């Protein structure tokens, strides 16, 4: 499944990068993320609870930040599994300044799912992924506004 999104954050690229890579901020803003613990340099163990109706579950996995350049970009590689299947995601996140205090965040990548979760259909999964990403960026915008006050 392709992942593609563009969002604007009311913070400069360096601050936006810091928020996107700060485990405490991510636990507050990623829907269903219960914990994100460092297990090495730019490697984290994650636990989240996500899903819809019959395919809701608790998932555990790893999150890696690769090729990180502060204020510019990073690659996010995630692997997780739970009682209903697995997910692998590889996304490049690029930051582009719009103005002194605003950044365009461009996300492009791929996600692969398997197990019962894959059985619910590509279109439904894509819609859920878009919904969750929208909720995340809405929460991140609020976080950026709160930090700048």
Structure report:
The protein has 149 residues and is an alpha+beta fold. The protein has a single domain, classed as Alpha-D-Glucose-1,6-Bisphosphate, Chain A, domain 4 (2-Layer Sandwich), CATH 3.30.530. 28% of the residues lie in helices and 50% in strands. It has helices at 13-20, 23-29, 122-148; strands spanning 2-9, 33-40, 43-50, 57-69, 73-82, 85-99, 102-114. A seven-stranded antiparallel sheet has the order 1-7-6-5-4-3-2. A hairpin with a 6-residue loop joins β3 (43-50) and β4 (57-69). The protein is globular, with a radius of gyration of 15 Å. The mean pLDDT is 89.
Structure at a glance:
The chain is an alpha+beta fold and 149 residues long. It has one domain: Alpha-D-Glucose-1,6-Bisphosphate, Chain A, domain 4 (2-Layer Sandwich). Helices cover 28% and strands 50% of the residues.
Instruction: Give a count of the beta strands, DSSP E runs of length 2 or more.
Output: 7
Query: What would the principal axes of the Cα set say about the shape?
Result: globular
* Order of adjacent strands in the largest pleated sheet: 1-7-6-5-4-3-2
Kindly report the name of the CATH homologous superfamily: START domain
Q: What is the straight-line distance between the termini?
A: 38 Å
How many structurally independent domains? 1
Unreliable segments (pLDDT under 50, ≥5 consecutive)? Answer: none
